[in-house]
Structures are given as C-alpha cells and as structure tokens.
C-alpha cells in the first residue's frame, strides 16, 4: 500500500507540474487538444489541461528580418541584380491572426520560401515595365509597389511587411562600364561648360576694364586739352595786355611803337633758332620781306590801339 501511495503522489506531482507552462516575453503559445486548435497562451505563467492539452507552437511577435538576393530583367532586356533587406512581423496578437500564423504553413521554411518568392515576383513584375536607365531612381517606388501588392496577401497569412530596403542595385559589367562612361562624359561636358563660362566672364570683365580705361583716358585727354586751350587763351590774353602796356609806355616816351614789334620779331627768330632741335625753318630774310612783316605787325598794332581807344 505504501508503494501505491508513493506512485500516486509522484503521478499527482507530475500532473500538477505539467499543468503549468511558461511563455517567454515576445512570443505567444498556441495549444491544441487532440490535434485541434484550442487557445492562445500569452507571455508569462499559464495553466493548461494536463496530459491532453499540448503547446503546438510558439510564435514570435517580434520584428524579424531576412536578406534577399535575386535578379530581374527590364523592358529593354537589361539584367538587374538586387540585394534587399526585408523586415516583417506578425500582424497583431488577435486570435484569428495567430491561428493563421500557426496553421497556414507547414513550417517556418515553407513560409519564408513563399514570402521571398512573392516579393521577388512583385519586384520583377514592376521592373519588367521599366527601362534600365530608370531603375536606379526607383528605390522608393519599388518599396511602395511591393507593399501595395503583397500587404493583403501577408495579412491573410497573419504577417505585415514593415520595410523593404534596396541596399544594392547593380547591372552586368558591360552596362556598369557604359554607365561609368556616360557619367564621365557628362562630368567632362559640365567641366567644359563651366570652363567656358569662366573664360567668358574673364573676357567680359577684361573688356569692361579696357573700356573703362579708354573712357578714363579719353576723359583725362579731354580735360588736358581743355586746360591746354585755357592756358593758350590766358597766354594770349597776357601777351595782349603786355603789348598794350608797352605801347602806352612807348607813346608816353614819344617813341615809335614799331620798335616793340621789331623786338618781338627778333625774339621770335631767336626762339625758333634755340628750340628748333634740328628742324629746318624757312624765313624771308630780305629787306622786302622784313618790310612786309613790319607792315603787317604795325597794322595789327593800330587795330589794338583802336580797340583800346573805344
């Protein structure tokens, strides 16, 4: 009898011990009774029916990621190679969602295969209607297209696509080389245009500077000519004043004013001789020429006297 009690006690302990199950944080347990879905167990310590209720699966509700590598062909028959990072999670913690996650696929491997192939098919269908030159600028468009296309399908499976990042988009080596050549030629073109603009600006500024210099020189020449003219006019005015004063003094001394003209004539000849610097000056040195010159100078003197008288 003692042995039976011990066995019964051990069995009772085992039954009680197996009646409790712990579910880790970030996961949800799914139980079955005789192979049929029963209920959901949330994180923490849970009680289950001993012996007949079993934990069928533990489902992670945390975000999960997977890397994808696949190939697509554009409408102009260019091969495009993608490397992407897929971030997904269970849609929510509702019972129907958890049941879909637990029972839609036989195992995790089957689910991942279906998920990856669905996303690859969506991206390939999108790329197939685009040209090779457009693909590099469509990272965001590809992501939005994939999410729009497969969100409903993933929801039926109990999952939600959080993010799809296109980490790398490449082409065949020949296409990559041609792209590099196009970029290099565009850079050379831009550099040539910039150099031409810089040269044009330099030439324009130089022309403006030359024009300003010419304007300044012309203005300076104009002012110099004006000053020279004013100097000549003042000189003539002073000469006329000097001649008038000398003529008055000669008249007061009862001397012939023609002496002044003769003196001016001889001084002019002396000045020509001293400052000619090798130039040849022809003067009429005959008595007739001198008489003719004196007559002209005396006529000018009379005119000046008449003006002073008035």
TrEMBL record:
All residue ranges annotated as the Band domain in the record: 18-183
Membrane topology: Single-pass membrane protein
Protein location: Membrane
InterPro entries found in the cross-reference section: Band7/mec-2_domain, Band_7, Band_7/SPFH_dom_sf
Gene Ontology annotations for the cellular component aspect, listed alphabetically: membrane
Superkingdom of source: Bacteria
Protein name: SPFH domain-containing protein
């Amino acid at each position: 009898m003692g042995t039976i009690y011990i066995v019964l006690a051990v069995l009772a302990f085992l039954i009680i011990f197996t009646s409790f199950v712990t579910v880790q944080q970030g996961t949800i347990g799914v139980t079955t009774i005789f192979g049929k879905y029963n209920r959901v167990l949330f994180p923490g310590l849970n009680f289950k029916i001993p012996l007949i209720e079993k934990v069928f699966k533990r489902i992670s509700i945390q975000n999960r990621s997977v890397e994808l590598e696949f190939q697509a062909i554009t409408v102009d028959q260019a091969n495009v190679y993608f490397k992407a990072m897929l971030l997904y999670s269970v849609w929510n913690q509702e019972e129907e969602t958890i049941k879909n996650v637990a029972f839609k696929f036989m195992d995790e491997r089957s689910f991942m295969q279906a998920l990856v192939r669905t996303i690859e098919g969506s991206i390939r269908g999108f790329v197939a209607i685009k040209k090779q030159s457009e693909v590099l600028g469509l990272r965001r468009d590809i992501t939005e297209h994939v999410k729009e296309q497969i969100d409903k399908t993933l929801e039926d499976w109990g999952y939600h696509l959080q993010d799809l990042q296109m980490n790398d988009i490449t082409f065949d080596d020949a296409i990559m080389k041609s792209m590099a050549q196009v970029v290099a030629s565009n850079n050379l073109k831009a550099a040539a245009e910039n150099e031409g603009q810089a040269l044009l600006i330099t030439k324009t500024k130089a022309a403006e500077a030359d024009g300003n210099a010419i304007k300044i020189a012309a203005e300076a020449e104009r002012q110099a000519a004006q000053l020279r003219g004013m100097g000549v006019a003042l000189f003539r005015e002073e000469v006329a004043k000097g001649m008038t004063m000398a003529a008055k003094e000669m008249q007061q001394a009862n001397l012939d004013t023609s002496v002044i003209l003769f003196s001016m004539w001889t001084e002019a000849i002396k000045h020509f001789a001293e400052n000619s610097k090798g130039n040849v000056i022809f003067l009429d040195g005959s008595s007739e020429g001198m008489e003719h010159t004196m007559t002209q100078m005396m006529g000018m003197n009379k005119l000046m006297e008449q003006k002073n008288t008035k």
